[in-house]
Design a protein that fits this description.
The protein is an alpha+beta fold and 498 residues long. The protein has helices at residues 48-66, 108-115, 124-127, 136-146, 150-155, 164-172, 185-188, 203-209, 244-251, 310-318, 328-333, 373-399, 416-426, 438-450, 457-463, 476-491; strands spanning 4-10, 14-20, 26-33, 45-46, 73-80, 85-89, 99-100, 159-163, 182-184, 194-195, 200-201, 218-220, 223-228, 237-243, 260-264, 268-275, 286-291, 299-306, 343-345, 363-365, 406-409, 430-433, 466-470. Strands 17-18-16-15-21-22-23 form a seven-stranded mixed sheet. The chain has a six-stranded mixed sheet with strand order 3-2-1-5-14-13, with helices on both faces. The longest helix is centred in the C-terminal third of the chain and has 27 residues, at 373-399.
C-alpha cells in the first residue's frame, strides 16, 4: 500500500504541495509565490500559466524533499483560492485572459445591473449568495463581454471555465490531451451559477448571465476519483477537490453540525457546519456547500467571508515599508499597550460579510498626534479580530447556536498577540491545532478517503490534536466599549465610491 497522500494547495499569493502520512503529519512541503497583478484600482489578476508552472515546480520539490516518487502516493487532492476565475481554450490550453481574482471589484456594474430587478439578494434563494463582485459568475460574464472573440469562441463550444481547482485538475490530468474538466460542490457553490438544492448549474441564472452551459465543468463530490494524474504524479488518482475554506473545515475535522473553524490567511473565513440542512442567512452570511463525500448526502455550512486580514499585514510591509517581514507586526504591535484610539478598517475590496458593500473603501479612524506606528500595527491586528467578531455575531443570530470555542488555522494563528485579543473580543476559547496547515490537510483527507487510505471520517478525528488554547482575559465592559468604536469606524467606510 502507498505510504502517503499529497495535496496541491493553490492559494491567493502562493502555491504549495504538501505530503502527509497516515496520522495526518506533514512529511514534506514545497511552496512558491506568484505575481499579484493590479492593472487598475480595484482590479486583481493572476497569470494562470504561471500558477500552473508553480504547481508543477512545488509538486516536484515536495517529492524531492520527501525522497519519494509518485508511486509512494495513494492519491492526490487539490484545494484552491475560490471564486478566482479562469477561462481558457480547450484546444490550446491557453487562457483567453488573466485569472480574475476573488478580490477583484471590476464586476460591480454587472452586479448593480443585475440587482435592479429583485435587489442584491435576488439569487440568494437558489445560490445562498448575494449579488457581489466576490463570486465567479459575473467575472465569467465580464470576460465574455470584454475580451475580443471570447463570446464567439464560447458559443462555438471552444472555451472552458473553472475556478483554480478546475484549471489545475484539467492540467494535472492531461490538459489538451484528455484533461478532466470537473469541479466539486464546494467550488461550484461559489460561482453564483449553482443551485444549492438541486446541486447542479441553474439554467435560469446561466441565461441571465449569458454563460453557455458547455463552458462549465461537471460537478462532482469533494471526495471521489476524478482521473489519473500525468507528469510528475503519473498514475496517481486525483481524488479530492475542495475550495480552500471548506478544505480547512474538513482538515479541522468539523464533521458535525455546530462545529466551526476560522482560517486566517489573505482574508479571513469562518465556517459553521450546519449538517445536511442548508440554513438561509438573514444576517449577511453565505449559505454554502461544505463538502460531499462520495455518494453520501452533501453537507452545508454558513460562512462569514472577510476580504482583507493577512493582506493588510502584507500591505503594511510592502506598500508602507513599516516592517521588513510579516511576522514583525507582532513585536511592533506589542511595543504599545493599546491602539491609542486608532481603528483600521481595511475595506480595500469593499466590505464582505456581514455588510456586502462594494462601494466601501479602507479608513483609519481616530487618529491624533499621540498615535505612532506601534498603535497602527496594533490597529492592523485588531482589525482581523473585530471583523471576526462581527461575523461570529451574525453566525450566532442565524444558527441560534452560540459558539462555545473556535478552532483556528492559517498563517496568522502563530501571532500570539492576535490570538489572545481574538479570544478576548469573542469571549470564548480559541484553539490552534498541532497541524495548522489544515487547508492542504483537508484536501489530502478527501483524496485519501476516496481511495480507502483512510476508512472513515472517524479515523481523521483521531488525528486531530490541540497545540495551544487561549482564554478571554480582557474585561467584558472594555471589550464592548471598543467594539462600539470599531462599529463606528466601519460606518465611515460606507459609500466612498460614487
Amino acid at each position: 500500500m502507498a505510504k502517503y497522500v499529497g495535496a496541491l494547495d493553490q492559494g491567493t499569493t502562493s502555491t504549495r504541495f504538501m505530503i502527509f502520512d497516515h496520522s495526518g503529519q506533514v512529511v514534506a512541503i514545497d511552496q512558491k509565490e506568484h505575481e499579484q497583478i493590479f492593472p487598475k484600482p480595484g482590479w486583481v489578476e493572476h497569470d494562470p500559466l504561471e500558477i500552473w508552472t508553480r504547481s508543477v515546480e512545488v509538486t516536484r520539490g515536495a517529492l524531492a524533499k520527501a525522497g519519494i516518487t509518485a508511486a509512494d502516493l495513494a492519491a492526490v487532492g487539490v484545494t484552491n483560492q475560490r471564486e478566482t476565475t479562469v477561462v481558457w481554450d480547450r484546444r490550446t490550453g491557453k487562457p483567453v485572459y488573466n485569472a480574475i481574482v476573488w478580490q477583484d471589484t471590476r464586476t460591480d456594474l454587472i452586479c448593480n445591473e443585475l440587482a435592479k430587478d429583485g435587489g442584491q439578494d435576488r439569487l440568494r434563494p437558489k445560490t445562498g449568495l448575494p449579488l457581489a463582485t466576490y463570486f465567479s459568475g459575473p467575472k465569467v460574464k465580464w470576460i465574455l463581454d470584454n475580451v475580443e472573440g471570447a463570446r464567439a469562441a464560447a458559443d462555438a463550444g471552444n472555451l472552458l471555465f473553472g475556478n483554480i481547482d478546475t484549471w489545475c485538475i484539467w492540467n494535472m490530468t492531461g490538459g489538451t490531451d484528455g484533461g478532466v474538466h470537473i469541479t466539486d460542490v464546494s467550488n461550484a457553490s461559489r460561482t453564483l451559477l449553482f443551485n444549492y438544492t438541486t446541486l447542479d448549474w441553474d439554467p435560469e441564472i446561466l441565461a441571465l448571465m449569458g454563460i453557455p452551459r458547455a463552458m462549465l465543468p461537471n460537478v462532482k463530490a469533494s471526495s471521489e476519483v476524478y482521473g489519473m494524474a500525468v507528469g510528475d504524479l503519473a498514475g496517481v488518482p486525483v481524488a479530492g477537490d475542495l475550495g480552500d475554506q471548506q478544505a480547512a473545515l474538513f482538515g479541522q475535522t468539523c464533521y458535525s453540525a455546530g462545529e466551526a473553524k476560522n482560517t486566517y490567511g489573505t482574508g479571513c473565513f469562518m465556517l459553521l457546519n450546519t449538517g445536511t440542512k442548508a440554513v438561509p442567512s438573514k444576517s449577511g452570511l453565505l449559505t454554502t456547500l461544505a463538502y460531499k463525500i462520495g455518494n453520501e448526502p452533501a453537507q452545508y455550512a454558513l460562512e462569514g467571508s472577510i476580504a482583507i486580514t493577512g493582506a493588510l499585514v502584507q500591505w503594511v510591509r510592502d506598500n508602507l515599508g513599516m516592517i521588513e517581514k510579516s511576522s514583525d507586526i507582532e513585536s511592533l504591535a506589542a511595543s504599545v499597550d493599546d491602539n491609542g484610539g486608532a481603528y483600521f478598517v481595511p475595506a480595500f475590496s469593499g466590505l464582505f460579510a456581514p455588510y456586502w458593500k462594494s462601494d466601501a473603501r479602507g479608513v483609519i479612524a481616530g487618529l491624533t498626534r499621540y498615535v505612532n506606528k506601534g498603535h497602527i500595527a496594533r490597529a492592523v491586528l485588531e482589525a482581523t479580530a473585530w471583523q471576526t467578531r462581527e461575523v461570529l455575531d451574525a453566525m450566532n443570530a442565524d444558527s441560534g447556536v452560540p459558539l462555545t470555542a473556535l478552532k483556528v488555522d492559517g498563517g496568522m494563528v502563530y501571532n500570539n498577540l492576535l490570538m489572545q485579543f481574538q479570544s478576548d473580543v469573542l469571549k470564548v476559547p480559541v484553539i490552534r491545532p498541532k497541524v495548522a496547515e489544515t487547508t492542504a490537510l483537508g484536501a489530502a483527507y478527501a483524496a485519501g478517503l476516496a481511495v480507502g487510505y483512510w476508512a472513515a471520517v472517524e479515523d481523521l478525528r483521531e488525528n486531530w490534536a490541540k497545540d495551544h488554547e487561549w482564554h478571554p482575559t480582557m474585561d467584558a465592559a472594555k471589550v464592548d466599549a471598543e467594539y462600539a468604536q470599531w462599529k463606528k469606524a466601519v460606518t465611515r467606510t460606507f459609500g466612498w465610491i460614487d
